[in-house]
Amino acid sequence: MVGAAVCVKKAMTCPKIKHCLIADCENVGIFITDNASGHYEDCEIARNNLAGVWVKNQANPFFRRCHIHHGRDVGIFTFEYGLGLFLLFLNWEHFF
């Protein structure tokens, strides 16, 4: 995928990405596809031109405490049978 900062694809692919800043991408911050997975923890995903995260084609990532914000499109976009577990960072100050 042109413009994605991180592209994870193919079955059995399972990177561990922690404490990263993925920002200001031409397209998508993280693109996970084709039965890939991975563990993404304590990352900041921000200011991307499309979604912060795209998940498709039966990919199944695990996100924990990632802060996905200020993109020009959606934060997380799952399509074409994309899966995933997303335990995200929430700043409760903005809710009260």
Automatic annotation (TrEMBL):
<dbReference type="InterPro" id="IPR039448">
    <property type="entry name" value="Beta_helix"/>
</dbReference>
<keyword id="KW-0812">Transmembrane</keyword>
<dbReference type="GO" id="GO:0006511">
    <property type="term" value="P:ubiquitin-dependent protein catabolic process"/>
</dbReference>
<dbReference type="InterPro" id="IPR011050">
    <property type="entry name" value="Pectin_lyase_fold/virulence"/>
</dbReference>
<dbReference type="GO" id="GO:0042981">
    <property type="term" value="P:regulation of apoptotic process"/>
</dbReference>
<dbReference type="Pfam" id="PF13229">
    <property type="entry name" value="Beta_helix"/>
</dbReference>
<feature type="domain" description="Right handed beta helix">
    <location>
        <begin position="6"/>
        <end position="81"/>
    </location>
</feature>
<keyword id="KW-1133">Transmembrane helix</keyword>
<keyword id="KW-0472">Membrane</keyword>
<dbReference type="InterPro" id="IPR012334">
    <property type="entry name" value="Pectin_lyas_fold"/>
</dbReference>
<feature type="transmembrane region" description="Helical">
    <location>
        <begin position="74"/>
        <end position="92"/>
    </location>
</feature>
<keyword id="KW-0677">Repeat</keyword>
<protein>
    <submittedName>
        <fullName>Right handed beta helix domain-containing protein</fullName>
    </submittedName>
</protein>
<dbReference type="InterPro" id="IPR051550">
    <property type="entry name" value="SCF-Subunits/Alg-Epimerases"/>
</dbReference>
